[in-house]
Amino acid sequence: MQVAFIGLGNMGGGMAANQAKAGRRVAAFDLSEAALAKAAEAGCTPSASAAEAVSGADAVVTMLPAGPHVRQVYAEWVLPNAKDGALLIDCSTIDVESARAVASEAKAKGFAFADAPVSGGVAAAAAGTLAFMVGCDEIDFAGVEEVLQPMARAVIRAGDHGAGQAAKICNNMVLGASMIAVCEAFALAERLGLAPERFFEIASQSSGQCWSLTSYCPWPGPVEAAPSNRGYEGGFAVAMMLKDLKLAQEAAARSGAAAPLGAQAEALYALFDKLGYGGKDFSAILQLIRGKLGELG
Ligand code: NAD
User: Fold this and answer.
1) 235 DSSP 8-state letter
2) Which residues have a Cβ under 8 Å from the Cβ of 166 and sit 6 or more positions away?
């Protein structure tokens, strides 16, 4: 199978590498030369443009920052150049409307399309253990599953087009709020003279256990793979978390759902972003809550 992979950043780089590792021919494209060079080292073939990458591919996978990038890449390069019968899968986290708009443009040109955002972070992207939440026509799901398999621990069909993105923004609203709750708990434990490592050991085996604590601990030390042990670099950027929390609030406002904790999380991440930390991993918000922004350098 030949796969075109567009968007080789923190997530896409590892995902494309796993496609190559599975023995697939991967035509890779990114605007960043550095990202392209890294993909080449991982066994992908760099393309000169997105149009060139998709032209011979059986499946196209995109992993781009946000809705406007996805709309543009599909309208200008993927849809005009993909070969007949190619399966198009967007794994970026974007708004439900953009996902549905791209799906209907793809359908109008005879392509099957799926929105398939992921959960799991950079470590899971590199390890091939992402969870995919898929919005697509039921008839296309088996093909989508086959394409995503080398990058996945789970591929779940959420429903029709847009349902994958709906699942993702709901999930990330939980993530944003739970990360802040975990950070507040560490800050309080510290003030109370409780060793953070002891608090981690206890809460990770108690009812406070959650992914933000045990897989992505914001306090450096207890979870080796967490960005907190690498100066909060290279994980899931504050600006990306803010984007997802905004998407959730916009969706809540449009649908009439109440999401007050999600609103608080959005406000805190907006403040952190405004203070100049948009490029740090989102777990760095611990230092804002501790009142120790100086530790972020
Ligand atoms: P990133 O900024 O590291 O990567 C995005 C890549 O897209 C960059 O390399 C950029 O050069 C490239 N790009 C932008 N416009 C392009 C274009 N027109 N053509 C080709 N390449 C283009 O972002 P990321 O952290 O990899 O996240 C990608 C998506 O995955 C986002 O939607 C994000 O919300 C989602 N996501 C990220 C994580 C995470 O932990 N980082 C987890 C789950 C989901």
Assistant:
1) S
2) 96, 135, 158, 159, 251
- pLDDT for 148-158, tens place per residue? 999 999 999 99
In sequence order, what E strands does 137-268 have?
152-159
Pocket around ligand 1: residues whose beta carbon is below 6 Å from it? 6-12, 29-32, 35, 50, 63-65, 69, 73, 92-93, 118, 121-122, 235-236, 240
Angle between helical axes of 260-272 and 238-255 (0-180°, round to 10): 150
Provide the whole-model pTM: 0.91
Q: Provide the strand spans (E) within the chain.
A: 2-6, 25-29, 45-46, 59-62, 87-90, 112-115, 118-119, 130-135, 152-159
Amino acid (one-letter) located at 278: G
Ligand 1 atom showing the smallest separation from residue 117 Cα: 44
Q: Half-sphere exposure of residue 195, counting CA atoms within 13 Å on the CB side?
A: 6
Hey, which residues are catalytic here? 168
For residue 12, what are the contacts with CB-CB under 8 A and spacing of at least 6? Answer: 5, 6, 30, 35, 63, 91, 125
CA of 206 relative to ligand 1 center, distance in Å:
35
Please give the domain boundaries of the chain with CATH numbers for all domains: 2-160 (3.40.50.720), 166-296 (1.10.1040.10)
* 152 bridge partner residues: 130
Nearest CA to ligand 1 atom 29: 92
How do residues 243-252 score in pLDDT, each as one tens digit? 999 999 999 9
